[in-house]
Amino acid sequence: MDEYKVAAILNTASGTCTPECADEIATIFSEAGLRTEHIWAGNSSELEGMFEKFEKSGANVLVVLGGDGTIRSAAVRSSTKNFMLVPLPGGTMNVLPHALYGTYSWQEVLRAVLKDPKVRKISGGEVNGERFYISAICGSPALFAHVREAVREARVGKALLHARRAFGNLFRMRIRYYFTEEHGGIAEAVTVTCPLVTSALDDNQKVFESAVINLRDAIDIFELATTAAFGKWREANNVATIRTPHVKIMARKKLPLILDGELAYVGRTATFNFIPEAITVLVPGNEILH
After folding, report:
1. Which of 274, 263, 261, 248 is nearest to 175 (CA)?
2. Are 38 and 7 in contact (CB under 8 A)?
3. Which fold has domain 130-276?
4. How many helices, marked H, and strands, marked E, lie in the chain?
5. Does the pLDDT at position 155 exceed 60?
6. Each residue of 114-140: pLDDT tens digit?
7. CA-to-CA distance for 52 and 135, rounded, in angstroms?
8. What pLDDT sits at residue 289?
9. Looking at domain 6-115, which of 3.40.50.1000, 4.10.480.10, 3.30.310.50, 3.40.50.10330 is its CATH number?
10. Burial (CB count <10 Å: 0-12, 13-18, 19+), residue 38
11. CA–CA gap between residue 255 and residue 173 (Å, rounded)
């Protein structure tokens, strides 16, 4: 690790990240012979300040422990500030960490990476200026993201309110899509998936795997909203896929999207473009986590 200067940021407001995790990271850093003073922990409102401290520290590797939103924010910064990322699972879905490292604990991942770090370039995508690295889900399933978050927070009343609204719009949202000049149409849901999480693509292919999905019922929609990032829907009969570096979708209303597990709105038109080298991460060189 001599060529790397490592620091860590923890979002203690995330699902499984607590203030005590900072002590665990300090111990793991110490075991690896790293400095332990460049570890910052705080809630979501303190993230901006922690990122600024990291950028002033001179470190070139950021270990980030938090939820999907925290990790995506760190990934976006890494693409513009030119530092390497070690995204650890500290939230509920942990989309990017699980795609990179599997379902190991963050302690196991961190120790393995620090023991034998290997640089890996990760492709991704951009939609109307918003970066993503796993997948985008467009259409009715995105409306259930609010329900999922309210359930996670144990806010039953809020969950029921969002569920009522989501079911009220069930099957009403139709989106027009264009994959190529020859391939376009209308669907209830469209997914745009990066190579990291689909077995249909490898890192050398500079394209998304995009899918048109005709939803059959509410169960389809909820399952898509919670599992699409890992492609568990690919074998269904109501799914058609295509490989393409560009996707354009349009709707009569503001489009709801789930980007790497987080809800976003991008207006009534969304244009997706593939980015061959979106971020740089560190993974275990000896592949003991695979």
Report:
1. 248
2. yes
3. Tumour Suppressor Smad4 (2.60.200)
4. 8, 16
5. no
6. 999 999 999 999 999 999 998 888 877
7. 28
8. 56
9. 3.40.50.10330
10. buried
11. 9
Residue 80's contacts (CB-CB under 8 Å, 6 or more residues apart) are none
Q: Please compute the mean of the pLDDT values over residues 9-16 and round it to a whole number.
A: 91
Q: How far is CA 28 from CA 8, 15, 87, in A?
A: 11, 21, 15
Question: Is 237's pLDDT higher than 70?
Answer: no
- Which residue has tokens 């740089």? 280
Helix, strand, coil % over all residues of the chain, rounded to 5: 35, 35, 35
Q: Sign of the C-alpha dihedral, residues 259, 207, 194, 215?
A: positive
- Tell me the H-state helices in the chain: 20-31, 47-57, 68-81, 95-101, 106-115, 145-152, 156-168, 218-227
Determine what percent of the chain is predicted with pLDDT higher than 70: 76
Count CB atoms within 10 A of the CB of residue 58. 9
Looking at residue 11, what is its pLDDT?
Answer: 96
Residue with tokens 């259930």: 144
pLDDT at 146: 54
Q: Where are the domains of the chain?
A: 6-115, 130-276
Coil, strand or helix at 226: helix
Please list, in sequence order, all residues whose beta carbon lies within 8 angstroms of the beta carbon of residue 204, skipping any fewer than 6 positions away. none
Q: Is the pLDDT of residue 37 over 50?
A: yes
pTM of this structure: 0.83
Q: Is 253 helix (H, G, I), strand (E, B) or coil?
A: coil
Q: Which residue has the tokens 């020859």?
A: 182
**164 CB burial (10 A radius; 0-12, 13-18, 19+):** exposed
Angstrom distance (rounded) from CA 125 to CA 133 = 6
